[in-house]
């Protein structure tokens, strides 16, 4: 019998890969099977270094722009976050075979933006500046129709580009549900007739992972979110855990920056992972904690996801 203390681990479910991420990673794998290596991928296919590294080992070459493609006969995959239309045009002009791994739920927002612009709405886009998804969505339409707002101050300072009293809003798919609702409420106070999306733009996986965290955060004295620093949905999970009762909530990548002393001093630890983090990273984290203390793991299921997306027809 060892003398190590026992820590309770509450494992949030659902967590980790969503259908859009699974599809994007599978697109790279299937492209490598079909075309051989290398295949190029514009931007990280999803925001997770472990996933990127494992695909690089199989023969994927990650680039930032199409002019980095050294062999134009090789296919290029566009990441799950989506790309501006000008990138697709550039690929066509240069006769580059491209495979679009944009998440279908991001594509839905693209189509909304196009329809709203066609009908000359002032589109207020709630999102994070410089995030690839935001760049991709804003790149679907003429800049005169769309304005990015990141917070309530941006909304209060907003000035419509088209003077026709037609307003609509769209959102990035990976935002905090509660923060976004606050911003939408402010928009509706200022523009009572503002048009809603037919269905919320925040994706089902973002919503479900945040709800799962809310369910357990108040019972934890430490909350660990497995994910990369550039993963929007992972960062939102940290915020949600803090707001839901666990002030000591941090982002970890399961291989570095583990708060060892805090883990050892905890009674109950909550664990989840962002939508771009594979389950193996959760397994590694739990194994790491188990090497320090005894653990009692309990999975708390708040919803069950059965969504899957088809691969593109050219695969």
What is the name of the CATH topology of the largest domain? Cobalt-precorrin-4 Transmethylase, domain 1
Largest sheet: 5 strands, parallel
CATH class categorisation of the largest domain? Alpha Beta
The side-by-side strand order for the widest beta sheet comes to: 10-9-11-1-12
Count of runs of 4 or more consecutive helical residues? 11
What proportion of the residues form beta strands (DSSP E)?
15-25%
Q: Nearest-angstrom radius of gyration? A: 21 Å
Alpha-carbon distance between the two ends: 54 Å
Topology as a string of helices (H) and strands (E): EHEHEEHEHEHEHEHHEHEHEHE
Low-confidence stretches: none
* Total DSSP E strands: 12
Describe the protein in words.
With 315 residues, the protein is of the alpha/beta class. Helix 4 (104-118) runs parallel beside helix 5 and helix 8 (204-216) packs parallel to helix 9. The strands form 3 sheets. Strands 10-9-11-1-12 form a 5-stranded parallel beta sheet, sandwiched between helices. It has 3 domains: 6-17 and 204-301, 4-hydroxy-3-methylbut-2-enyl diphosphate reductase, catalytic domain (Cobalt-precorrin-4 Transmethylase, domain 1, 3-Layer(aba) Sandwich), CATH 3.40.1010; 19-103, Rossmann fold, CATH 3.40.50; 105-190, 4-hydroxy-3-methylbut-2-enyl diphosphate reductase, catalytic domain (Cobalt-precorrin-4 Transmethylase, domain 1), CATH 3.40.1010. The protein has helices at residues 19-35, 49-58, 85-93, 104-118, 132-138, 152-156, 177-190, 204-216, 232-243, 260-264, 279-290, and strands at residues 6-13, 39-42, 60-63, 76-78, 98-100, 122-126, 146-149, 167-171, 222-226, 249-252, 268-273, 294-301. The chain is built from 11 helices and 12 strands.
């Amino acid at each position: 019998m060892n003398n190590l203390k026992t820590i309770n681990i509450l494992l949030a479910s659902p967590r980790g890969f969503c259908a859009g991420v699974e599809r994007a990673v599978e697109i790279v794998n299937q492209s490598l099977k079909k075309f051989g290596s290398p295949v190029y991928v514009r931007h990280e296919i999803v925001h997770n270094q472990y996933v990127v590294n494992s695909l690089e080992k199989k023969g994927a070459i990650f680039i930032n722009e199409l002019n980095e493609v050294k062999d134009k006969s090789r296919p290029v995959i566009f990441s799950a976050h989506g790309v501006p239309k000008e990138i697709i045009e550039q690929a066509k002009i240069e006769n580059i075979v491209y495979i679009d791994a944009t998440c279908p739920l991001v594509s839905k927002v693209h189509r909304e933006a196009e329809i709203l612009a066609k009908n000359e709405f002032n589109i207020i886009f709630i999102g994070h500046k410089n995030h690839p998804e935001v760049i991709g969505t804003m790149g679907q339409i003429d800049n005169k129709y769309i304005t990015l707002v990141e917070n309530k101050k941006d909304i209060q300072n907003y000035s419509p580009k088209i003077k026709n009293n037609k307003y609509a809003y769209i959102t990035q798919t990976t935002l905090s549900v509660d923060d976004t609702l606050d911003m939408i409420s402010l928009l509706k106070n200022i523009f009572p007739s503002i048009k809603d999306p037919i269905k919320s733009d925040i994706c089902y996986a973002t919503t479900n992972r945040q709800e799962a965290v809310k369910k357990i955060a108040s019972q934890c004295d430490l909350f660990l979110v497995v994910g990369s620093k550039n993963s929007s949905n992972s960062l939102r999970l940290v915020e949600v855990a803090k707001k839901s009762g666990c002030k000591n909530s941090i982002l970890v990548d399961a291989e570095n920056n583990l708060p060892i002393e805090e883990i050892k001093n905890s009674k109950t630890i909550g664990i989840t992972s962002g939508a771009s983090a594979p389950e193996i990273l959760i397994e590694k984290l739990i194994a790491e904690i188990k090497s320090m203390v005894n653990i009692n793991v309990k999975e708390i299921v708040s919803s069950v996801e059965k969504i899957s997306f088809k691969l593109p027809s050219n695969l």
